[in-house]
Amino acid sequence: MTPTPKTALTIAGSDSGGGAGLQADLRTFFACGVHGMTAVTAVTVQNSLGVAGFSEIPVDVVTAQITAVAGDMGVNAAKTGMLATVEIIEAVASTLDEVGIGRGTQSHVPLVVDPVAASMHGDALLRQDALEALRTELLPRATLATPNLDEVLLLTGVRVSDGQSQREAAQALLELGPQWVLVKGGHLVNSPRCVDLLSDGTHIVELGGPRYETEHTHGGGDTLASAITAGLAKGLGVPDAVSSGKRFIERSVAEAYPLGAGVGPVSPFW
Ligand code: PLP
User: Fold this and answer.
1) Could you read off the pLDDT of 65-110 as tens digits, one per residue?
2) Pocket lined around ligand 1, Cβ cut-off 6 Å
3) Over the chain, what is the mean pLDDT?
4) Are strands 7-15 and 144-145 parallel, antiparallel or unpaired?
5) PANTHER family under this entry (predicted)?
6) Would you state the pLDDT for residue 190?
7) Which of 49, 119, 226, 228 to mutate for ligand 1's pocket (most ligand atoms within 8 Å of CB)?
């Protein structure tokens, strides 16, 4: 019999095109050797050209998925992605407390919060009134928050343009309550390297890596956050989980492929 692997839960939206969202999370969990579980929050209608619309899952169904798997199978680490509405964010936050996931709970199962607000095409994945709930309900429960630069601007008002403003952004995010923040530099297009900043207020780690020339980066943020979540599920500390997640996303971006008429996904094939 195969020994039971570690488990990781993603609380996220579905991408019908299979490039991002829970589809990216599940295949990343698989590739990283952990058993993936899902609490679906919303179903997007989406292809390589963008998101045509989405429909949220009823709040009680979202929370029931979390309690069903946490009570029976156990969760070694969890991740949130697209949460769509205030109601879903509030209900997920209190359910995480009930099942002991996240900062401040007794068991403190690691929680990665990827504060998804919009697709790379600019399509909203979070209702406008839900940003404050993300700030006040979810970020304080995060072991690690992984915003991209657009999300940093929305959450803190800090526009990151260089290393100095990246540090200011990390500090502003830490004031919202996560234990660690990873301010991703991947969207700083004029920089020849891709430098991410990881900080818990005491330690500051700069993680540099090559910038790959590809337009096909759909699902990159989800893939990085779920690779980090898999590392945490396997018992790595945050800095080691982030380094291994970064190696995973670098390979995935290097092998990204065209699909459809728009933006193709980062690749699970390597
Ligand atoms: N669709 C869903 C369901 C997502 O969760 C995300 C990102 O988290 C996206 C789309 C957007 O991905 P991208 O910004 O790579 O287009």
Assistant:
1) 999 999 999 999 999 999 999 999 999 999 999 999 999 998 889 9
2) 12-13, 15, 20-21, 44, 46, 81-82, 116, 119-120, 125, 218-222
3) 95
4) unpaired
5) HYDROXYMETHYLPYRIMIDINE_PHOSPHOMETHYLPYRIMIDINE KINASE THI20-RELATED, PHOSPHOMETHYLPYRIMIDINE KINASE
6) 65
7) 119
- Give 89 Cα–ligand 1 centroid separation in angstroms: 17
The residue nearest atom 6 of ligand 1, judged by CA position, is: 21
Angle at 145 between CA 223 and CA 268, to 5 degrees: 5
Measure 43 CA to ligand 1 centroid, in angstroms.
11
pLDDT (tens digit per residue) in 125-170: 999 899 999 999 999 999 999 999 999 999 999 999 999 999 999 9
- In angstroms, what is the span from residue 24 Cα to ligand 1's centroid? 9
Domains of the chain, each with CATH number or no CATH: 7-254 (3.40.1190.20)
CA of 49 to the centre of ligand 1 (A): 12
Record the tokens describing residue 30, joined without a space: 């698989």
Q: Could you tell me the pTM of the whole model?
A: 0.97
Q: What is each CA distance from 202 to 13, 52, 63, 170, 180, in whole angstroms?
A: 33, 43, 34, 11, 10
CA distances from 35 to 25, 42, 54, 199, 217 (A): 11, 22, 27, 28, 25
pLDDT in tens, 230-245: 999 999 999 999 999 9
The position carrying tokens 């070694």 is 76
